[in-house]
Each structure stands twice: as C-alpha cells, then as structure tokens.
Amino acid sequence: TPLGRSLFVVGGNAKCARVSGINVDKIRIIAFTISGLMSGLAGLMLSSKMGSINSVFGSSYSMDIIAAAVIGGTSLAGGIGKVSGVLGGVLLLNFVQVGLQVFGMDSYYVQAATGLIILLAVLIDSFRIRLANKE
Predict the structure, then answer these.
(1) pTM for this entry
(2) DSSP code for 104
C-alpha cells in the first residue's frame, strides 16, 4: 500500500523521504498512532485473558517481541522487514521455547536461549548491512 511504502522509506532514510516529497512528520504520526492503538488492543486482550490488570502486565514480553521481529528478518536499522517474516519469527521462537520447556529446561535457561537467538539474529543483520554498504 502507499502507506506501507511510505513507512518503509521513512524508516530507511527520512532525509531521502523528505526530499522525495513524502510528509515525514505525518507518516511518523500515523505510525505512532497505529502502534499506540495496537498496543492498547493488546493490553485489552491480555487483561481480559488474565481476568485482572496490573501495571507490569506484558513487561516480560518485550524480549520475545524484539526477538521475533529480528529473527523474522526485520532490521534494527529500519527499512527492512516483512509481516510474513515476523510471523515466521514468532513461530520459530515459540517452537524453540516450548520445545526447551518440554525437555524440562529451567525457565532461566529458556530465556538465555532466547537471548542467544536474539544475539545471533542481530549479528547476522549487522553483517548483512555491512556487506550491503560495501557493495
């Protein structure tokens, strides 16, 4: 969609987007608005699942969210990523976490494995960016 392409351009290089005639401020406002609405919806769904609400609900999910996005191919530098890749990252991460728990690993080791997966994905992403900049 035009909004999706504009988001990618602004995320990749805001100066080029501005020179290309894209209203960068408007796209950023739209992005933050959509992000806030989706976060509110996620909070509503989590609170309805738990049956109560607390200010720290969902704080443990931040590492899993970043891991799923990075594993799915989303660049931390911006401008690179696909929804299908993020969904694949969610499935892979969930498969690894549930598999480790089924084998009886302690939850601390499961979190450590998730951290190692994030580290590997970020290293691969940084090497991919360096190779793209050299060419």
Answers:
(1) 0.62
(2) T
pLDDT, one tens digit per residue, over 6-15 is 888 888 788 8
CB atoms within 10 A of CB 74: 22
| All structural domains of the chain with their residue ranges | 1-53, 58-135
CA distances from 107 to 63, 98, 101, 102 (A): 14, 10, 7, 11
* Alpha carbons 73 and 3: distance in angstroms, whole number: 20
DSSP string of 24-60, one letter each residue: HHHHHHHHHHHHHHHHHHHHHHHHHHHSS--TTTTGG
SS3 letters for 72-91? CCCCCCCCCCCHHHHHHHHH
Q: What single letter denotes the amino acid at residue 11? A: G
For residue 93, what are its two tokens? 């991460």
pLDDT tens digit sequence for 86-128: 888 888 888 888 888 898 888 888 888 888 888 887 888 778 7
